[in-house]
Amino acid sequence: MHNEQHFSALKFITCGSVDDGKSTLIGRLLVDTKAVLQDHLAGVQRSGETDLALLTDGLSAEREQGITIDVAYRYFNTEARKFIIGDAPGHEQYTRNMVTAASSADAAVVLVDAIKLDWANPDLQLLPQTRRHSLLVNLLRVPSIVFAINKLDAVADAAVAYKNIAGALEKFAKEAGITVTAMVPVSALKGWNVVTTENNDQPDWCGYSGPSLLSILEDLPVTPAETDVAFSFPVQWVEKFHDSGVTTQGRRVFWGRVATGSIAPGQTIQIFPSGQTAVVSQVLSATRQPQGKTAGHSAGIVLDREVDVSRGDWLLAAEGAPEDQRQLSTTIAWMDDEPLVAGRVYWALHGHRWVKAKVQRVVHRLNVNTLAEEEATELAPNAIGHVTLALQEPLVTLPFAQSRILGALVLVDTASHKTSGAVLVN
């Protein structure tokens, strides 16, 4: 019996270098799981052959250049599960798009193109793109990382190529501290090992007898809810009971999604930033049924008395909640066209709370291909670096390594209102 976390939809991204066959792989998944209509298939013929990559290149600019620019989401399902695919761009100048797609993904499929590597050499070097994307998805704490070694139908000795490339990936992952969930040899073009393993002309192709890529994805867990951290809840909406004659509880419901921990009636909570405490008298589901709620679920919370709470405030566990902080040591993926420099002030959004944040110092720039720390005074577009932020008002945060929700902020330009950076708290 699948448990609930395997049964819910899996959100995964595909990444890798340009022309590694990401679009063809996604096209293959869509076609072989019957997610594409026949008339749609007829529209992507090129000289009599179906060009699977054309199914996914949504923007006309992508079709003209033959590259992926934006993140496009595709949906398909099998009898076992529903899937959401984010097709992330391979080019370095679209690192920001890749960061956006990875920050909410349950899994990443990193495609490795066998043809581009010196596959006969046991000490072969991986492409910088493969290293970069693996390091980025690991930095963004994508829970499952799967390497799919593609185009093995086009090399002279597929078994040797698979063995050498898999060895190089294992060595790199070990050095970088990346946990690899699975490795699978595929041919997206021929459909080998993508949806089924039956259609290869040779059994044990590449000396591999494991499951197909789709079978691996069907069994991956979704991102576990952060239930091992103290309760926290960003208030999104405050609803008034106008006609409530009940005096044993407050007359407002605070709606939002439980970020971490769990909540049930009788628990004592504190309100941030006011510091007041109260006891939870009711926890409501979206259909207003009373029930306890854990992280990842939406809830309406009614307290035992009237307290001043508005959108952007947080309800926190009275015991064990993280300390509020005015200075944050962070890792920032920079998305703006204007570089990030010390002294600039941005709006920071944390949960539903907006505070002003000043860039105190750019500590290091991370080399996106190696994550080595380099001296820097600014972050250019698509760069990633360590930055100290000073906040005008305190925030309750946890390191991103502990909580993907409490440890993440967004920086927004105060004048243009453009999203300028994705922030991970160190």
Can you tell me about this structure?
With 426 residues, the protein is α+β, with helices and mostly antiparallel strands. The protein has helices spanning 4-7, 22-32, 38-42, 60-65, 95-102, 128-139, 158-176, 213-218, and strands spanning 10-16, 45-46, 49-50, 72-77, 82-87, 107-113, 144-150, 182-185, 232-240, 252-257, 262-263, 268-272, 277-284, 293-294, 298-303, 314-317, 324-334, 340-341, 345-350, 353-366, 373-374, 378-379, 384-396, 408-413, 419-425. The strands form 6 sheets. Strands 4-5-1-6-7-8 form a 6-stranded mixed β-sheet, sandwiched between helices. The protein has a 6-stranded antiparallel β-barrel with strand order 9-10-15-13-12-16. The radius of gyration is 24 Å and the shape is globular. 43% of the residues are buried.
What is this structure's SSE topology?
Elements: H1 4-7, E1 10-16, H2 22-32, H3 38-42, E2 45-46, E3 49-50, H4 60-65, E4 72-77, E5 82-87, H5 95-102, E6 107-113, H6 128-139, E7 144-150, H7 158-176, E8 182-185, H8 213-218, E9 232-240, E10 252-257, E11 262-263, E12 268-272, E13 277-284, E14 293-294, E15 298-303, E16 314-317, E17 324-334, E18 340-341, E19 345-350, E20 353-366, E21 373-374, E22 378-379, E23 384-396, E24 408-413, E25 419-425
Parallel strand pairs: 1-5, 1-6, 6-7, 7-8
Antiparallel strand pairs: 2-3, 4-5, 9-10, 9-16, 10-15, 11-14, 12-13, 12-16, 13-15, 17-23, 17-25, 18-22, 19-20, 19-24, 20-21, 20-23, 24-25
Oligomerization state:
single chain
Unreliable stretches (pLDDT < 50, length at least 5) are 1-6
So how many helices?
8
Largest sheet: 6 strands, mixed
Average pLDDT taken over every residue: 88
What class would the helix/strand composition place it in? alpha+beta
- The order of strands across the largest sheet is 4-5-1-6-7-8
Total beta strands? 25
Beta-strand content bin: 25-35%
Distance between the termini: 38 Å
Secondary structure: helix percent: 10-25%
Shape: globular
Instruction: Round the Cα radius of gyration to an integer and report it.
Output: 24 Å
